[in-house]
Amino acid sequence: MLQVSVYRFNPETDAAPRMQDYQVDTGGKDLMVLDVLEMIKADYDASVTYRRSCREGVCGSDGLNINGRNGLACITPLSDTVKKNKLVIRPLPGLPVVRDLVVDMSLFYAQYEKIEPFLQNSTPAPAIERLQSPEDRAKLDGLYECILCACCSTSCPSFWWNPDRFIGPAGLLQAYRFLADSRDLATDERLAKLDDPFSVFRCHGIQNCVNVCPKGLNPTRAIGHIRTMLLNKAA
Amino acid sequence: MQVTSFSRNGLSDWLIQRVSSLILLAYFLFIGVQIGIGIDYTSWRELHDGTAMKVFTLLAVGAYVSHAWIGLWTVFTDYLTEYMLGAVGNVVRPLVQIAVILTLVVYAIWVIQVIWG
User: Which A-chain residues 155-184 have CB contacts (< 8 A) with chain B?
Assistant: First the structure.
């Protein structure tokens, strides 16, 4: 029997959060963490609340703190995370808890909105589409794949302490995705909004984001590229 | 918060912090080598009487003050905030910042007095 400990908090009825333990029979199978949560909800306690949708690491809904490490519950096998038969599941750190494992992502999305995550090009649109060379298109690899699960930003101490000022690794990865796009013409305007002491420069390069990204992306490298672009423009 | 940062600009602060760290590294390596080879008091006085060494020391103090302020400002605006401490954070942070700025300025004046006085 797997010992599962789940963070429980209902702000309407509970004075404080608590951890609730369950003994789950996995039948010896190497299930995904999401499967275990589904079993708890179906067989033990229907009130356990969490987000999930695609259950295959595409939608980014079930970002959770699993045995102390952020990840997507649907693609985290028990064999990767369970030590001493114990599984501890908490909500993503640093964001307000709505209920149990569901967090309020407003701050995360507000930072994403700040970087204007859309192509800006005021030249007349061509008849079919704006083309890129294969080389220019390749510059977007490792950037466009982000699914905004928030595992990276909520593992970043700089984002914990200044979630309203520091854009965070997820937002900055997307900022660079548009800075690197040959079709985007707002490079100078984008850079001008990033050179304050908080938006980019709160990153101290500790690479928690790289460590936890379920898609294997590297926000620290993207932030380094943004710094270089700022330096080349200003110095 | 931003108004108390060293240069009011993230890129500039970042660059100053890196350049100042190189100056400090060069200074302490130089001093370390002097001490390592067993410099005596007379030679130490002669070394620090030279204009080049005075400029180097003053440069190191400038680097120290700017480096320390940029680093500490970052720590203060991480932990001594309304977000972390509630409303009292907005009182504590400016007081601590003023105390640290005054301390660093006093250090700088003191060093100028020692080497040029």
Answer: 157-158, 161-165
Structure tokens given for B67: 């480096």
* A101-124: average pLDDT: 97
| Closest Cβ opposite residue A196 in set B2, B78, B79 | B2
Helix axes B51-79, B89-116, angle to 10 degrees: 170
DSSP 8-state class, residue B63: H
- Segment A14-31 shows an average pLDDT of 95
* Residues B75 and B100: beta-carbon distance below 8 Å: no
| pLDDT above 70 for A151 | yes
Q: Does B2 have pLDDT greater than 80?
A: no
Contact in structure between A208 and A152 (CB atoms under 8 Å): yes
Instruction: Report, in angstroms and rounded to the nearest whole number, the Rg of chain B calculated over CA atoms.
Output: 18
- Count CB atoms within 10 A of the CB of residue B24: 17
Please give the pLDDT value at position A145.
97
Read off the tokens for A172. 């900055």
For residue B15, list chain A residues with Cβ-Cβ distance below 8 A. Answer: 231, 235
Q: All domains of chain B, ordered by start, with CATH?
A: 2-116 (1.20.1300.10)
